[in-house]
Each structure stands twice: as C-alpha cells, then as structure tokens.
Amino acid sequence: xxxxxxxxxxxxxxxxxxxxxxxxxxxxxxxxxxxxxxxxxxxxxxxxxxxxxxxxxxxxxxxxxxxxxxxxxxxxxxxxxxxxxxxxxxxxxxxxxxxxxxxxxxxxxxxxxxxxxxxxxxxxxxxxxxxxxxxxxxxxxxxxxxxxxxxxxxxxxxxxxxxxxxxxxxxxxxxxxxxxxxxxxxxxxxxxxxxxxxxxxxxxxxxxxxxxxxxxxxxxxxxxxxxxxxxxxxxxxxxxxxxxxxxxxxxxxxxxxxxxxxxxxxxxxxxxxxxxxxxxxxxxxxxxxxxxxxxxxxxxxxxxxxxxxxxxxxxxxxxxxxxxxxxxxxxxxxxxxxxxxxxxxxxxxxxxxxxxxxxxxxxxxxxxxxxxxxxxxxxxxx
Length: 382
Known about the structure:
- Keywords: Cell inner membrane, Cell membrane, Membrane, Transmembrane, Transmembrane helix, Transport.
- The protein folds into two domains: about 1-185, Growth Hormone, Chain: A (Up-down Bundle); about 185-380, Growth Hormone, Chain: A, CATH 1.20.1250.
- It is built from 17 helices and no strands.
- The chain has helices at about 5-30, 35-65, 70-85, 90-105, 110-125, 130-155, 155-170, 195-200, 205-215, 220-230, 235-255, 265-285, 290-295, 300-320, 320-355, 355-360, 365-380.
- The radius of gyration is 20 Å and the shape is globular.
- It starts with a helix and ends with a helix.
C-alpha cells in the first residue's frame, strides 16, 4: 500500500474512535451507566492520569521491543477487549477500574500513529498535513454520526459504536503496512541513544517542548468551557455543535496546506501560533457575543494545528529515530494531558468569576510562549 494512503486511512479511522471517546464518553458514563456528575469527573480525572503515565512511560518502553506496526495492532486488540469488558460493568468501582484500564491503553494509539508518521517522514516523502487532516475529517464525521444515533436510540449506543469502530480499525490492521514500520528495534536501538534522559540532552528539545506545552495547555478552557459559554451567550443548543465544528474545519483547511509551509522555521511557526492563540482569547474576552466567538474559531488553525505541526516537523527533522517515540510520549503526556488537566482547574476558577475571564486567563501561558520563542530562536537555531 502507498505510504501516504496507509497513514491517511489510519488517521481517519483512529479519529473516528477518538470523536466517540472525547465527546461522548463522560455522557455515556452518566446517562447509560447512571453515574453522578461528580463520579464521572472523578473517573475521567483519574483516566487522564492513566493516559499521562501510559503515554510518557509505557508507550516509549513498548516501542523499544516492538515494531510500530505490531504495537498499533496490539493496542487496537487490547482496546477492543477492554471496551467489550465494559458491557457487564455497572457499579462505580467496576466502571472506575475499566475506565482507568481503557485510558491506560487506548489513548496510546494517538502517539503510536503519530510516531509512525514521523518515521515515514524520515524515510520517504510524506505530506504529513494532508494525512493528518483526514483524522480531523474522521473526527467531524464521527461526531455527526454519533449525534444522530444517540438521538435515535439513546446514549447506550455510544459503547457499541466504539466497539464497532475499533473492530473496523482492527480489520484495517490486517492490510499491508509500509516496510519501515515492520522493523523490530535492535539491542543497539535500545541503548543510551534511546533513553529519556538522552532526549532532554538534545539541544533545543526542552525549549521546544516547553513552548508547545504552554500553547497546547492554553486550549484547556476552550475544550472544557466552550459549550457552557455558548449557552451563557444564549445560543440555541441546535447550533452549538455547528459553531464548535468551525474550529475543526479551520484545522482541516490548515493541515491540508500545512506542508506548503514546511520551509518555515519551527520558531516562526510557533511564534505565529503563539500570537494567534493570544489574539483568540483576547477576542473572546473583549467581545462577549456569538459573532466574535465564531471569528475566534477560525484561529484554531494556528493556536492548535500550527503549534502541533511545528512540533511534528521539528522532531521529524531533528531527532534520531530512536528518540521519536520518547518525544511523542512526553508531548502527549505533558502537552495533551497533564497541562490540560491542570489548566482546566485554573480556567474553572476564572469562569466562576467571569465566563470570559476563563479564556483571557489562557494568555498567562501564550504570552510567555511568545517571549520564549523570541529569546531562544537564535541561540538554538530552530
């Protein structure tokens, strides 16, 4: 199979399942399993901890002994088994255990596929942005399909949709994968050059990581409070989903064209992302109306997508293959999980003071990111 097609298809079907997990899992625990909001929050909070531990430690460790293709296959099979085991779980204790286990296994598929992407970028001509945009398309389609299904049969269908989508993903893993993803790491690959400590000794990497943690973490209020903020603005519930999807559409448009900016320096991409992100939160705070919020949605293309693309471009061009999984694991754990979890608490505190302040508060992280880029770009030549 063509390398580009393989990557695009895997992004598409994974984000199909990711749409179910991110958007509907808390609702399924609450509506289908009868948990209280506080119980759901407790379970999902520990799920984030499990996800962070797994992606930062377990995932990089597994990549030292398994080929990228075999690791993805193993994660898909394990995720499917755990999802099926959810069926008889009804008590708080059993749902807590199953969610912790599921959160430990399933989210590692994201850095696993991203790791495959960076490997392919190092060994062949891959249009990363184009393939990654298929993931965003899959996410949008999944959310629309699940919304229709829930409206027809109720929240109990959410688990069955996840089981079905993971089964489709499993079937896709039976198709031929690029040869470079079939290579099993050697003893030499597991040497000092692949240690986590060695990763942080690579010139410039700690700075790049800090910047993307700040930028990705600053999206916490958007991810967690946008829905209730739009309700605060008296937006009709039927239109909220459409408005929130504008961000994903802007992300898709950017990713489709992102590789045209591959000649831009990582520092330039991160600087634009920081400025765009800061502007986004200022607009929401300064103009508390639906039209300003819609305008700010278009900036998701830079505040998330450009920052993400900059990091992927940097590690694919700079890091040795032995360190790619470590970089993906740390980025996923700190940039996508723990930072968001911590900043959600900060954003929630600000939201109680004033809804718009929850978004403005995120510039406490974007502005330092801008200054870090300006202060370090010449020194580290990134």
